[in-house]
């Protein structure tokens, strides 16, 4: 029997980590169509040009994923987050997306996303300890 060596790498930029992702992506693309992944950033600035909020996300396999949404405490409740989400959904629709998903912690913006029509499909309790992580989705289009 061949001997196998298993190693732990304490950093996230180990060359093996990049090779693992590259290999998994190649496998996925051999089974499913290419995801056609396209990232985007949408920023909101005040009149003085200071960053007051923004979204990072990407589209792939006809889905929008919001990886991060941030608005300064000073500007929360003023519609900035809603406008950013509307813009992200518009970008996704232009790219042919049918659905969107995201995740948030219980101490972040769960009621905000639900108000925008996102529905929870899963959650992890006690992640981080004392809180929960919530996964939400929204249908962007009704046609196929």
Binned strand content: 25-35%
How are strands sequenced across the largest beta sheet? 1-2-3-4-6-5
Number of helices: 3
Poorly predicted sequence stretches spanning 5 or more consecutive residues: none
**Annotation, overall tally of beta strands:** 6
User: Rg, please?
Assistant: 19 Å
Secondary structure layout:
Elements: H1 15-31, E1 38-45, E2 51-60, E3 63-71, H2 80-94, E4 99-105, H3 110-115, E5 119-125, E6 132-139
Could you explain the architecture of this structure?
By secondary structure, the protein is of the alpha+beta class. The protein is built from 3 helices and 6 strands, in the order αβββαβαββ. The protein has helices at 15-31, 80-94, 110-115, and strands at 38-45, 51-60, 63-71, 99-105, 119-125, 132-139. A 6-stranded mixed β-sheet has the order 1-2-3-4-6-5. Strand 2 (51-60) and strand 3 (63-71) form a beta hairpin. The protein starts with 14 loop residues before the first helix and ends in a 5-residue tail after the last strand. The mean pLDDT is 94.
Provide a brief overview of the structure:
With 144 residues, the chain is an alpha+beta fold.
Summary tags:
single chain, 144 residues, alpha+beta, six-stranded mixed β-sheet, 3 helices, 6 strands, 34% strand, globular
């Amino acid at each position: 029997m061949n001997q196998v060596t298993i190693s732990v790498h304490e950093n996230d930029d180990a060359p093996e980590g990049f090779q693992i992702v590259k290999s998994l992506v190649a496998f996925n693309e051999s089974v499913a169509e290419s995801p056609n992944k396209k990232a985007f950033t949408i920023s909101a600035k005040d009149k003085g040009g200071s960053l007051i909020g923004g979204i990072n996300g990407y589209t792939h396999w006809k889905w929008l994923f919001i990886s991060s949404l941030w608005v300064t405490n000073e500007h929360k409740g003023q519609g900035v987050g809603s406008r950013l989400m509307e813009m992200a959904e518009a970008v996704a629709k232009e790219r042919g997306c049918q659905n969107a998903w995201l995740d948030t912690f219980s101490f972040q913006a769960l009621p905000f996303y639900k108000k925008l029509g996102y529905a929870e499909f899963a959650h992890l309790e006690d992640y981080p300890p004392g809180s929960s992580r919530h996964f939400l989705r929204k249908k962007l289009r009704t046609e196929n």
